[in-house]
From TrEMBL:
Top-level taxon in the UniProt lineage: Eukaryota
InterPro entries recorded: C-N_Hydrolase, C-N_Hydrolase_sf, Gln-dep_NAD_synthase, NAD_synthase, Rossmann-like_a/b/a_fold
Reactions it catalyzes: deamido-NAD(+) + L-glutamine + ATP + H2O = L-glutamate + AMP + diphosphate + NAD(+) + H(+)
Cited PANTHER family: GLUTAMINE-DEPENDENT NAD(+) SYNTHETASE, NH 3 /GLUTAMINE-DEPENDENT NAD + SYNTHETASE
Its EC number(s): 6.3.5.1
GO CC terms, sorted: cytoplasm
Pathway: Cofactor biosynthesis; NAD(+) biosynthesis; NAD(+) from deamido-NAD(+) (L-Gln route): step 1/1
Record bears the keyword Nucleotidyltransferase: no
Name of the protein in question: Glutamine-dependent NAD(+) synthetase
A Pfam family per the record: CN_hydrolase
Source organism (scientific name): Sarcoptes scabiei
Keywords per UniProt: ATP-binding, Ligase, NAD, Nucleotide-binding
Amino acid sequence: MSSLKFGIAICTLNQLCLDFKHNLNNIIKSIEESIEAGASIRIGPELEVTGYGCEDAFFEFDTVYHSWQVLAEILKRNYRDILICIGMPILKDSSLYNCVVIILNSKLVYIRPKNRLAMQGNYRESRYFTPWNDGTQGSMCWFEVPPFITEINLQTRVPFGDGTILKLNHRIEKEDFISSINGFKIGFEICEELWQSDTQNSRLFGTRGCHLVINPSSSYWELRKLDLALNHVKSATSKTGGSYAYVNNIGCDGGGRLCFYGRSFVMENGELLQMASKSSDDIFDLVNVSVAFIDPINTEQFRLQNGISIKSCTIGENVISFDSEKSPYDACESFANISNINVISVENVEKIFSRDKISTQPINYQNFLSLTSEEEIKRYCSLWLWDYLRRCIDGGIKGFIVPLSGGLDSSSVVCIVYCLCELLYRQVFVVRNLNVIKSLQSIISINDAVDLTPENFCNRLLRCCYLKTKYSGQESLDRAQSLANLVGADFQVIDFTEIYQMILDKTPFKINCDSEIVTVQQQNLQVKS
């Protein structure tokens, strides 16, 4: 067995915008679970410190300041012999960058800013962030860290930019076959960069010879979007060999419009090794840590057997050394020439490759089968509803109210709420999710819940109101009541005729109210009332 085999922990987090205490707790928990699982590198999602959906709060200096405070708390814990990747915003030269900060032994190794911003769909990243050049050439500079960071780890500066890779130099016994591998190379992409036609990974794998590419993401749910991400990564790793770690947020982080789908994964040489949130039982977890164990010898063999030539000879290596046992970078003679650096050589990392717990469990590929469209809708619409509800319970909100007309739109909403109730039922009685049980205590008494069903959950969480007027038909009322009874929702009929008539009497346009013919204007007024 190769002595270089080590674990990649992909940490899928359910964060909340600007709730720095909650976010820090999730990050710390994920780091500690990664260490416990024997991982050598811990990867978190994009902007995990602040939450992705902060919107105009990114314009506030406090948002960046509190992000550094969170990072300081992580550094104080002095986690040893594990490479930690943290997503957070960083302000440099009056520009805000979406970054990944790499930490080893409480020292900052490297800050990698995003160079391609997402602007399609519901993304508006260029409103808040600045791209770090165009991503084609790569450029580096020094970043001066805040003084309170220096007080913790005595470090004053760190390389900043997108022009470098990390090379973990591991001393291997001479008799070991793989001693010819010249260090373990790690490259970085951030979310949108994967989806561009000139992706970073093609150069990182094909030209720089990386064994692993890391991608922290905040990709929101759309039907079949996960399949697209898997296809992109499968194509990249099949062509040039290598491992790819894609790490995504999950849930509604407070922005309201988006629900992230999680499903972080690791792929090696075109084959899926690990995926998070495989079951619907996992999607309500605030922290989900999945570990994949990779070996660079597999990448070397794949490239050799498939005749894949790495064009590293076209790029000269300009190296700067990082040694976590010393004062990194401060005594570096390359202060003026940092722009030429394209490799950060990380020394004294033997312990990173000697974690105790190496998994040998066979992978059940059935867990990674694509979800049907109906299952996706059930999972992620329910997750969005739950994240929204659980954060409002302390404010007195106890459930949902739906004006159920018996039509397709309102009936679909009721069905989605019932799907949530089915999932919550499993969380309480099968999974025994303590966070879910605690959130529901003020709505449903779990102590006497042994006889409860999903319909009982729905009765406590959902009220359906049929807004009746003189134009309402018995058939629509019957459909609405039948659906409410079927899912167990509380159902009420509210006569809206008097309110409707009051509005009708004050309309600025002429309507013949005595006519037996119902005009389109009257029908629309009933709906809008």
